[in-house]
Amino acid sequence: xxxWTLVDILVRWKEATAVVxxxxxxxxVREIRCAGVNKVSVSRDLPWGPSNSxxxxxxxxxxxxxxxxxxxxxxxxxxxxxxxxxxDLPS
Length: 91
Description:
4-stranded antiparallel sheet; globular
């Protein structure tokens, strides 16, 4: 997912779901679908300057009994963290 572009993050509170939309290197829209969402944390402090590109994707990994966690580190230095019961990741 390096250099993919983050488009948006949609959280459906009642359904406890989230969808992260990204555009890959071939301009195709790709989605990360999250079910059983416990936590969504998004910083936008831009410590390294403005960017909507992904630097690194980590996970899913165990989140200490709360489910699984993914972390998207942006090239701006900001982090998108989602803790959920399951993730459907693009291939």
